[in-house]
């Protein structure tokens, strides 16, 4: 398919800097960068197609239990509602934490803005080890109206995902499940762990799903090395 696409270099040469006065050095560097951005877009498209072409994942055989937004105990399949796909995010707000993880909070704030649209296509559930009432209380403080929080019953789910340590510390997990009749299969899970991070970088997925970092990546200052989001400023 790629062989039918126009050269990224040729496409980049069509660009025009929006304001006058750019030096020849800036113009050349920007054009070269634009060609790389076009290639990056195409690579992202190939990754998306490769992800969607994954063969059927493993069947989830363990009977994980949860408490939904009404505090009713349900199974994993129940979290799908009338959808075929369930996107779940396990956030770091266990009962031992006084406040949630700032980065989880930042990410969920951005997702809340798109949640109503996302839920037109798939089920979207935010999972946590704290009581569901506690999760919703924090969501109300933040003004989140479109996220659905679910409590994990027991720690089997977190332990099996490998995101809960013996000392009670947690890690986030983005996991996508697929309905297969009356069964649930894993479709995709974020698996870029800390030991896969490149030197000098936080572990993260590619493309980065956090709009915070994506926006800062557009700036000359970048993400910075001594800054992290906070719950309050």
Explain what you see.
This protein is α/β, with parallel strands linked by helices and 233 residues long. The chain has 2 domains: 1-53; 65-189, 3-Layer(aba) Sandwich (Glutaredoxin), CATH 3.40.30.10. Helix content is 32%, strand content 16%. The chain is built from 6 helices and 7 strands, in the order H-H-E-E-E-H-E-H-E-H-E-E-H. It has helices spanning 8-12, 24-52, 102-118, 132-142, 156-161, 211-216, and strands at residues 65-67, 73-75, 85-90, 123-128, 149-152, 173-180, 183-189. The protein has a 7-stranded mixed β-sheet. It starts with 7 loop residues before the first helix and ends in a 17-residue tail after the last helix. The model has no long low-confidence stretch (mean pLDDT 93).
- In CATH terms, the superfamily of the largest domain is Glutaredoxin
Percent range for helical residues? 25-40%
First-residue to last-residue Cα separation: 48 Å
Could you give a short account of the major beta sheet? 7 strands, mixed
**Which stretches are low in confidence, meaning pLDDT under 50 for 5 or more residues running?**
none
CATH topology of the largest domain: Glutaredoxin
- CATH class of the largest domain equals Alpha Beta
What kind of assembly state do the chains in view correspond to?
single chain
User: Which of globular, elongated, flat, extended, rod-shaped describes the shape?
Assistant: globular
Which strands sit side by side, in order, in the main sheet? 2-1-5-4-3-6-7
Say how many strands there are. Answer: 7
